[in-house]
Each structure stands twice: as structure tokens, then as C-alpha cells.
Amino acid sequence: MEWQRSAFDWNQARAFLVTAEEGSLSAAARALRLTQPTLSRQVAGLEEALGVTLFERTSRALLLTQAGTELLEHFRGMGDAANRIALTATGQSQAVTGKVVIAATNGMATYVLPRVLKELRTKAPDLQIEIIASNETSDLRRREADIAIRHRRPQDEALFARRLRDMTGQLYASTPYLDEVGRPSTAEDLARMNFVGFDAPEQRLGLMASRGIELTTANFNFLTSSVTLSVALIRQGFGIGILPVEIGEAYPELENPFPAFEPIEIETWLVAHRELRTNPRIRLVFDLIAEGV
């Protein structure tokens, strides 16, 4: 191998790769936690080292040149290799100390994880746990998180997944709200009531229709992607919402307004990168969550 020809800086290569993936210097700078001028100098340094122009710089955007497009796949391979090195190194660590990042949906992070992690505090008090409470899927390959709790099975073969106990979704409304508007006795009654929407209501219409409830977007006067806010809105009487039974039953002022509604089964998966299974701290947290959930 001609080592001198490959003597460019990996930081410069990473700067080019992330800029190409993110589509702009500003977005790439945020992703890498660098200043935009620093990132721009790294990309320019790589262009100088390779003797090619990687981007066409316009007033509105960065466009990959032909050389940039051809080299991008090679740099993606380098990025994947760098991530694998980091994952393998993490997997070799034998100390039950350090940091573990857990990514979970807003609802799981708020209502499930705290009680599960109580035992962890006893077994490994020196561990530092960071919880990413977001409905966005964290990229485990890129180490955005070490462990993730998801509601769909991952398709990536590099990930290790264990199915947890399924959750059950049911309709809930506040007792004062139902006292005011009346309790529905038929599907038609239910279809005339207000609903608190989780994410885009269009995604719920087919689900409700499959259970004989013909709603329209007009039924959803309040929308949110946050389970915690959805719970607050339902408790305050803004309408009916779908909640996991474990959450709904935690509030005595909530009740099922239409018991004939067919419950919704919600898959729950615990996911980690395969190479992290040999890491004691990751394994400990993974197993505790699996047992607790």
C-alpha cells in the first residue's frame, strides 16, 4: 500500500462526509459541534490534500462535484469503519463505570424508565445515565445512543434486538369532560366527540376506522407529538386520547369512555449494537431494562 498517498487528515475526511450527508456547512458544524469556519477550513484542507474540488459553492447550497460524488462512498466506508472501531473499543471495556446513553420515546422515558432504573442506581452507582427523550429514531451505528427502546423491530442486521412485553393502547378521557358532554354509547356517538391527536391525525384515521370509528381531521382540535403533553391535555378535558393502559390507569380522573373499543397492541423492542453486547455496563443496563419492562 502507498501510505504517503493516503496521508490526509481523518478529521478533514469526517468534515467532508458529514457536510455531504447534512447538505450544508452550518448543519454539519452543528452535528460535529464545530464552528462553521473551522469546518470549512477542514473541507478545504482535504480538497488541497487530494488535489480535487469536492463541492461547488453556490449562494444557496453546496453541491457535490463529480469527484465529490465518486469519493463520497469511499468516505462513507471510512466513517462506518471508524464507528466500528469505536464500538469494538467500547465493547472491550470491562469496567462497570462510565456513561450509557439510552434513547426512548417521550412516553417511555417519562413513565417507564425512571422506575426501571431505580435498581440500576443500586447495582451500579458509578454509572452515568443520559436519557434522550425523543420520538425520533437515534442512529445506534453512529453512537447517537448505546441502547434504544423502540416501538418497531429494527431491520439493520448490525443491531441486536429483544422484544419486550407489548403495551396496550386504549381510549381515555377525563371524568369531568365526560360528565359535561356525555358518555358515548355507540360508535356514532364517539365519532362526534373531540380528540387529542398524537402526531398527524391522518395517521390515526385508518386505525380508528378499522375499529368502526369514522373520524375526520376535524375531530382533532389539539395535536402534539409529546405523550406527556397529550396526557396533560386529556386530563384537562380537551378531549379523548389513546394512551398505553399503564399510563392511563395511573390517573384516577381518567376513564375509558367507550369500553367496546378494541385495544391497540403496541410492540416494544430493546435495541443495541451487536458489538456492545460484550460491554459490561451496556449489558447491565440492557438486561435491567429488559427485566423491568
CATH superfamily of the largest domain: Periplasmic binding protein-like II
How many DSSP helices? Answer: 12
Q: Give the CA-based shape.
A: globular
Report the uncertain regions: none
Number of strands: 13
Q: Indicate the CATH architecture of the largest domain.
A: 3-Layer(aba) Sandwich
Question: What's the end-to-end separation, in Å?
Answer: 51 Å
Kindly state the percentage of residues in helix. Answer: 40-55%
* CA radius of gyration: 24 Å
| Largest sheet features | 5 strands, mixed
- Whole-number mean pLDDT: 85
SSE topology string: HHHEEHEHHEEEEHHEHEHEHEEEH
The CATH class of the largest domain turns out to be Alpha Beta
Give the helix/strand class: alpha/beta
Q: Name the beta content range.
A: 15-25%
Could you walk me through the main structural features you see in this protein, from its secondary elements to its overall organization?
The protein is an alpha/beta fold. The chain has 3 domains: 3-91, Orthogonal Bundle (Arc Repressor Mutant, subunit A), CATH 1.10.10; 93-165 and 268-292, Periplasmic binding protein-like II (D-Maltodextrin-Binding Protein, domain 2, 3-Layer(aba) Sandwich), CATH 3.40.190; 167-264, 3-Layer(aba) Sandwich (D-Maltodextrin-Binding Protein, domain 2), CATH 3.40.190.10. It is 43% helix and 20% strand. It contains 12 helices and 13 strands. The chain has helices at residues 10-22, 25-32, 36-50, 66-92, 106-111, 113-123, 175-181, 187-191, 202-209, 227-235, 245-248, 280-292, and strands spanning 55-57, 62-64, 98-104, 127-133, 147-150, 159-163, 167-174, 195-198, 220-224, 241-244, 254-255, 264-266, 269-273. The strands form 4 sheets. A 5-stranded mixed sheet has the order 4-3-5-13-6. Strands 7, 10, 11 and 12 form a 4-stranded antiparallel sheet that branches. Strand 1 (55-57) and strand 2 form a beta hairpin. The longest helix has 27 residues, at 66-92. The model has no long low-confidence stretch (mean pLDDT 85).
